[in-house]
């Protein structure tokens, strides 16, 4: 099974298609917020991605929490950009004969922090997915339209 087959399988599955669409659409906003150094609002894009995916989750048998989680994780992958930017901005320290533990543990530590933030974005996305599904179920329009 090649990469193309795997991508086609993910795209044809509605439980991944909607999180990929909403997560990818939140990535530019996450990167823009990283550049503006606004800390608090960085949770808004994964929340909205999970919210939108939770609205779409009504069509799928998978829970809205799982779909929101996936949307938050996909949107959180853009945090790797900020981590790489940090690593390259501290590269001057690396080349001025640093101790070995700084050279080894800085990329490992930054990778662990990025991974932790991606998990947090997944949790925020799952909360947005639950809320989106709840709003759709309670306030969404009915699908049975009657002609009069």
TrEMBL record:
InterPro entries: DUF5518. Keywords: Membrane, Transmembrane, Transmembrane helix. The chain crosses the membrane at residues 16-33, 40-57, 69-88, 100-124. This is DUF5518 domain-containing protein. It comes from Natrinema versiforme. The lineage of its organism: Archaea, Methanobacteriati, Methanobacteriota, Stenosarchaea group, Halobacteria.
């Amino acid at each position: 099974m090649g990469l193309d087959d795997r991508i086609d399988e993910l795209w044809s599955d509605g439980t991944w298609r909607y999180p990929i669409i909403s997560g990818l659409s939140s990535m530019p906003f996450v990167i823009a917020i990283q550049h503006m150094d606004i800390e608090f609002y960085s949770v808004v894009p994964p929340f909205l991605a999970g919210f939108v995916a939770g609205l779409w989750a009504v069509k799928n048998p998978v829970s809205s929490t799982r779909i929101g989680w996936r949307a938050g994780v996909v949107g959180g992958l853009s945090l790797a950009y900020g981590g790489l930017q940090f690593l390259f901005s501290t590269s001057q320290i690396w080349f001025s004969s640093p101790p070995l533990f700084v050279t080894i543990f800085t990329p490992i530590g930054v990778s662990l922090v990025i991974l932790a933030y991606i998990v947090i974005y997944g949790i925020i996305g799952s909360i947005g997915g639950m809320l989106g599904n709840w709003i759709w179920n309670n306030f969404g329009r009915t699908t049975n339209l009657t002609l009069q």
